[in-house]
Structure formats: C-alpha cells, structure tokens
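Predict structure. Chain length: 527.
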Amino acid sequence: MNNLTNQSIINANEQTYLSLLVSVEAGVGMLQIFIAVCDADRQRENIIANYEQELAPNYNIYRVYLDSQEPSLKQAITQQVTLTENAIAIVLGAETLGSFNQNESLKKFFGYLQWTREALRELKMPIILWIPSRIYDQISKQAPDFWSWRNGVFHFQPELSLVQGDSSINQSLGNIKDNQEGSVFSPEQLEASLAEAIQQWGADSSKTEVLYSQLGTLYAERVESAKSTNRQKELILAQEYLEKAIVLQTKFQKLEALATSLNNLANLYHNQGKYSEAELLYLEALEMRKRLFIGDHSDVATSLNNLASLYYNQGKYSEAELLYLDALEMTKRLFTGDHPDVAQSLNNLASLYYNQGKYSEAELLYLDALEMTKRLFTGDHPDVAQSLNNLAGLYHSQGRYSEAEPLYLDALKMRKRLFTGDHPNVASSLNNLASLYNSQGRYSEAEPLYLDALEMTKRLFTGDHPNVVTSLNNLAFLYKSQGRYSEAEPLYLDALAMSERTLGANHPITITVRNNLRRLQQQMTSF
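Prediction complete.
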C-alpha cells in the first residue's frame, strides 16, 4: 500500500468516524446498537480515545469489557454501567473471543447476542460494540435476531501506520473492497443523522458536510440501481446533496473529498445526457486530482476514464482515445501484473475501437481483458461475465453469430448464478441474447427473452427508468422486424414518452427511440 492509498483510507475513516459520532449523539437516551468493525488494536484505541474526548463534557461514557468465559453483552453492561442519564457504553473484548482455537467462547457470545434483544430494552443508551472483521463476517448468520436490530455498522479500514505488527493485517487488507461496497446505512438513517447534525452543529459545519456527501453518493448509487423507490425524486436529492457537499468542501478546503463529489455529480449529469455540465465537472475533478496527487494515482486514472467515457458517448472518439490510453498506461504502472482496474481500462479502450469499427484492435483488447479477469477471479464473477458479454457483442456486430452465442449464453448463466432472482445484469444478458437471435431471424426464440427482460426490468425499476425504455424499444424493434407494426407502435410510443420524462428530449436514447418510431410510422404509411 503506498502513501497516497493510505491517505485515501485515512480520509474514508474520518468520514466513518464522524458518522459514528453523529449517530451516537443522536441516540443518547435511547437504546441504539452500533457495531464498529476494526482489526488493529492501536487504531481502535485511537478512535475510542478521540470520541471519548469529544463526548466527555456532556455524556457519561463507560468502557465495558466482556467476560471471556461468559461473554454476555447484557450482563457486562448492567454490571459495569451506572444507568444514569446521558450514558454511552463502549463494549470491548470481543476481539479476544475465538482466538487460539478457543471457539467455545465465541459460540457463547453469539448465543447471548441472539437471545439478548428483549433483555436489552431497559438500557436507554447507545451501545457501541467493537468487533474484528472475522466476527463481523459471522454475526448476521450466528445471531440474526440481534443483527436485525442494529442501528448502524461502521467499518474502519486498516491504516498502514496503525497496523504495523498486528497479526490480522493481511486478512483486513483483503476485506477492504468488500467493506466499501455500497452504504451500510439506509437513506432514512442518514437523513435522521443529518437532521441531528444540523440541530447540533448547524447546516454549514464540516460535520454536516460529511453527511451531505454520504447522502448524495447513496442516492446517486440508488438511482443507477434497482434500489431506488422513486427515481426522479432520488435523482433530485442526489444532486441537491452533492451540491451542498461541494459548497462546504470548497469552504473547508477538503480537496480530495471535493474532487470525489465533483466526479459523482458529473456522473449524474453524464447519465442524464447533460454532457456540457458533466464535462465542466469532470475537467475540474481531473485537474484537482492532478494537483493533489503528483504522478500516477488511481483517482487520476478514474477521472481520465470518466472524461473519456463522456467524449466516447458524444462521438468524440479522438479525444476519448487519448484519455483512455493515458488511463490504461497509468493503471498498468500503478498495478503491475493482473488487476481489475487494468482489465476495466482494456475493456474501455476496446469498446471505443469497437464503436469505431476497429474490430481487430478491439478483439485483441477484449481477449486480454477476458483472460485477465479469468486469472483474477476463479469461478463466477461479475467482471468475467461482463468480459464475456463484451466479446460476444463484438462477434455479434461482425456477424460471427456462432462465436457470439456461446459467450452470451455463458454470460447469462453466470449472471443467473451470481444474482439469484431479478437483477439488471441478468436483464441485460437476456436482451443481448434476444438481440442476437433477432439478428439471425430466430424471432420465436428472441421474443420470450425480450419479454422476460422487459418484465424483469419493470419489477426491478418501479415507475420510469432508462432500462425499461431500452427493453420497450428492443421488443418494439423485434415486432417491427416481423412486420407486426400495430404491436410495435404502442411500445415505441411508451418508450419515447418514458425516455422524455426520465432523460429529456435531447438525450441520445430519446433521439434513438424517436427515430425508430419515425421510421416505423413511415413504413406503416407506405404499407
């Protein structure tokens, strides 16, 4: 881990720390269960000492230690805490349970947790239970009732300066990516924390900035996934919170966080087809990251890729190619050998060449990316499925149908194994395979796949969503190819209206659907 990477981890831990602090203060006087995950003893002690110092003037803080023989959470608290007002309990000792093959104590701990919920009701205080990642990995299965009652989970990533000599370094470092996937908080939890933070520190403090950033990022992620319950509302909220975060990050000169917020807001604009607004923000984020990180850095490579993607979607291929090449070379220097970021950069450049009709160059890069992802991820993995899908798409476009079909099928089967039930990637694979069959005139095989994809996207994205637009358009195209014009027209009309509502009249997807409808209506008139 280099110093720049470690600095990014330190910044992420600062945000987690502030979120924990806000949540604890908001929960004073109520039973609130917070789980803090940390593997390094020195790091854990530093974090606790910091928030003890901040909270001490106004609250009664107790350090509670679990009995290694009878590790009952409730018993430890009631024996060691005076049940006064403004009490906060910090529970330690779980890190020793189950070590040195003494699994009996860990089994007892999980057993006490599972049956402790009702017994804890009398404890009107925030409880911060500190556990190592090895226990966190088991707690939801071993104590599901307790787990369902948690009010928040806070992952502290290992900082290089604080884990020297800790035996769990390798395990912890391997878990960093998993711990960062998505937010552990619901929008409701973060909104409540924000309200408390505004009441305590004011709307324009550095502590509320962290929550604005978290909420903006969370809503942005939900907008582009199947988790958004009201896409348009959450899109507006994502933009508003990110804009507030940007104002405060500028005020307090939190430049690394500012660059991230600029990039995230640019992504929102990009996905809406607001290319000029996105370009300004991408450029600002890129220049800021170049100033912050002298030389090669993964954040700079990300900005290069994002700006290249914007130019690619606008058809500015020469500008996009230079940026994609820079990003690829930088990731290769940063990560010697195989790495997911290198594979992604290979895929990005290959997609550009594919859209330019440079099929031989694209094929070599797609093959390199596929082989690299297979070496990186043995067995099923989303990146492998994506690489299979990309190469299949290239062969499809070249009319190499017999080579494309097994790749599409492999990608679809892998995604079904990876994502049980409905998932956007499964719907995408259904659409792709259906499109291949449509190209071959295998209409009876294409139709049920298109219908499955449409129904799945409707279940995934309630209301309007670009993925539903795509599925409507694809099914309409199939019916048009068969001369079933009366069935195709209402689908195109629905797709166009939805695309205009969600993406706007000038978005490329809207323009494509509008042109498809126009050509259909011309054919209907001629017919």
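Summary: The mean pLDDT is 86.
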